[in-house]
Amino acid sequence: MRFSIRGQGQIKRSLDTSERAQAERKADEIWYEATYRAKQGLSAKVHTFEAVAQEFIELIHREVERGERRADQGRSEPSMIRRFFVGYFGSRSVDGITDTDLERYAEWRRTYWTEGPGKLITHIEYERAGHRLRRPVRRAAPSLSRQRGEAVVLRALLRQAVKWGYLKTPPEIAIKVRRKQDNRRPSFEPHEFTKLVETSLCRLTDPIMDGSGAEVRSSDKRRWQIKRLDDHTRRDRTVLHAYVMIGAYSGLRPTEMYNLTWGDVLGYRAGRGAGIAQRDIRLKARGKGMSGTAIPHTAAIPWFDTLWMLFERGMQREPVDGDPVFASGQGKRISSIANGFTELLKAADLERDHRGIKRTPYSLRHFYITQQLTHGAEVTDIARNCRTSLAMIDKHYGQVRLERVVDRLRPDWTRA
Q1: Mean of the pLDDT values across residues 336-356?
Q2: Domains in the chain, ordered, with CATH?
C-alpha cells in the first residue's frame, strides 16, 4: 500500500500477504493508525526503538563536537544504549513502550551479566588514547549509582523522541532500585579508638614484659615463646602507630597520607625543638585527583617527630623535602599499611564494626570527621579541610549517634 499524510509525505508499507481481502483489512488498520497519529501531533510512521536510539546516538556525537557534552559521554553513552537499551527493546515501536516494560527492563538489566545475554560474554573491548583494550567482565549486578545513571540516559532518549514527534508522552521511568544495606564507611566510637591506641602501644613493648609472646613451633616439635621484638617488627609497628594517630587527628585520606613528603608538612622544621603548645603545622594533601591544605590537630605533631627520628636512625641523615613521611627502613615510600592495620584491628578485636562491616585505614578519616561534627565544628569548615563536599559529608559522615550529642538536642528552652 502507498498513501500520503499532509505535511509528512508519502508512506509505503508492505502488507505481507497475497490475499486481497486480508490485504485490504491490514491496509485499513495501517491507514487509521497513521491518520490517528497525525491528528495527535505524532509522526504517522511508526518508529522502532532501535532506529530512534541510533538517531539519539548521532545527536550525542554532534553535541560532543559542539562542546555541549563531555567527550567521555560520547564514548560511554552510545555503547550503553546499544548494549542494554537496544538489546532489550530492539525493534519494538518506541511509542508502544509502557511503564510495565520499563519495570521488566530494570530487572533484566540487573541480571544481564549473571543470567542474561552477558553471561556468555568473556570480555569487553574499548578504546583509550587510540588503543584498543579489553577488560574482563564483572559478574555482578550494576551498582546503585550506575543503575540511576543509566536511567537518566534512557529518560533523556525518550524525552528526545517526544521532541521529534515519535511519541506523545514518555512512559514514567521510575526504576525502583533496591536500596543497598547500610554500608557507610565504618568508624570507631571514642572508646573503641582508645582501645585501638592502647593495643597498638602494647604491641610496641617486648612480649617478655607481659607474657604475650607468640608461641613458635619448630619442625622437630620444639616449642618456645618469642620474648623480644626484632628491630624490623618494632619499627613497622611504630610507623603504623604514627599512621593511626596522624590519620585520626588530621582526617587525611590513605592516599594523601602515603603521598606526604616532608616538604608537605609546612612549618614543621621551623618548630622543631619547641614545645608542642608553641608549634603548629599545615599539611599539603595530594590525592584522589585533588589537592589542598589541611589543618591537623596539634596532637598529630609528636608522631611526625617519631617518624622524623625513625628516618634519621635508618638513613643516618635528616629527611629532605622530597623524602616521604611514611618511609621504610631504606627511606622508600610505603605504599600501603593495610595488612599491618588489619593485624592491629584483630589484636584489638575491632576488625569489624557493629554492622559487621570490615574496618580499613579509611576508618581513621571517618573517625576524625565524626568527632569534628560531634564536638561542634562547622560542617562547611570540615568539608573544606577534608577536601570534600557538603553532600559527601552528609551522605557518609553525618550519621552521628544521638546519644553523643544529647546535650545539643536538649537546649534550655522548655517551659516549666
Answers
A1: 93
A2: 46-163 (no CATH), 190-213+225-405 (1.10.443.10)
